[in-house]
Amino acid sequence: MQFKDIKGQTLTANHLTEIIDSGRVSHAQLFLGDTASGSLALAIAYAQYLNCEHRQHYDAAGPDGLRADSCGECPSCKKYQQLTHSDLHLFFPNAATATVKGNNISVADFQSEFREFLNAKHQTGTLDEWYEFMQIENKQGLIRERDADEMVRTLGMKSYEGGYKVAIIWMAEKMNAQTANKILKCLEEPTPGTLIILVAESSDKMLSTIISRTQLVKVRNICNEVRNASDEFRTLYVTWMRQLFKLNMASLSAWVDTLHSKSREVQKQFLLFAQESVRDAFLRNNAGLPSQIDFGDEKFNNSFPAMITEHNIEALNDAFNNAIFAIERNAYGKIAFMELSFRISKALKKR
């Protein structure tokens, strides 16, 4: 991946190439931002530039304003383009599938699939798309202790090709505490010529000891602020809110069944979208800010924001947080969604 192939991230790309050119490469970095906006692609392009044998520098603004880029032609670049470089090590959430079973699975079991996925999605595929690609159904992927053991072992070895050894941990927030603690030593006492890049969409669930040992690179969100507000999500949300006013149990039960039939990651994304929709309505109703979300229903667009006030916004936010927490921990979806529905219905009546 070259920086010129990543749209909308010229400022970040220029910052990254300047860091390398000045010799100020931190051994542990955290690229924080949406994968769909290019956080993972930037991490890979950064590693490619770091190991490029013939870096290209532009006297004037280069392609899309870039100050520099990897050549894309040297042996190292060609291997990075295919994600097959011997010193590039990828770590990512994984789970048992229909073909890879047992209690001892790790990233080693899915390397070829993950590379295929990244190449197909131009390194901007989302976590939900990766789960769908793996066909793990309703399971939640994790970065496991065995993965951390493999990273420690790999980074302790000499570079195969003489350049930097690079470990990229995608969706680093999917490490549990045990996994994160195992990589602390790598972050604190790295072997020479080692670069560890953690790529995360949110740092809220990451250990502070991990965050404090990394250099932060914030990746600008270039996607539409409501890109997750697909037609399906908007329809689900509008139908749901209207049912909560009537509390028709038969209709509500059918709605819950519809959401329950989807993967856990889609369920979580919908809840995040719904929570953002409530926040958007509150800001529109109480701060006079323009709405960022169009539900495709003019009557709903105009009437719903008035339902969210200072009297119920906190209760609504807590209800969504609890439901998201439950889904992430494999709670039974039907119960979680029905309980959330009752809490929202109650809160809306306190406006």
List key phrases describing it.
351 residues, alpha/beta, Rossmann fold, two-stranded antiparallel ribbon, 48% helix
Explain what this protein looks like in three dimensions.
- By secondary structure, this protein is α/β, with parallel strands linked by helices.
- It folds into two domains: 3-218, P-loop containing nucleotide triphosphate hydrolases (Rossmann fold, 3-Layer(aba) Sandwich), CATH 3.40.50.300; 231-346.
- It is built from 14 helices and seven strands.
- The strands form two sheets. It has a five-stranded parallel β-sheet, sandwiched between helices. A two-stranded antiparallel sheet has the order 2-3.
- Helix 2 runs antiparallel to helix 3 (75-81), helix 11 (264-287) runs antiparallel to helix 13 (313-328) and helix 13 (313-328) runs antiparallel to helix 14 (333-348).
- The longest helix is centred in the last third of the chain and has 24 residues, at 264-287.
Task: Determine the fraction of residues in helical runs and give it as a percent range.
Answer: 40-55%
- Kindly provide the name of the CATH class of the largest domain: Alpha Beta
**CATH topology call of the largest domain:** Rossmann fold
**Secondary-structure-derived class:** alpha/beta
Oligomer: single chain
- The gross shape turns out to be globular
* Main sheet characteristics: 5 strands, parallel
Strand content: 5-15%
Number of helical segments with 4 or more residues? 14
* Cross-sheet strand order for the largest sheet: 4-5-6-1-7
- The total number of structural domains is 2
Radius of gyration: 22 Å
CATH architecture grouping of the largest domain: 3-Layer(aba) Sandwich
Low-pLDDT segments: 224-229
Name of the CATH homologous superfamily of the largest domain? P-loop containing nucleotide triphosphate hydrolases
Mean pLDDT: 87
H/E element sequence: HEHEEHEHHHEHEHEHHHHHH
The strand count comes to 7
Cα separation of the termini: 51 Å
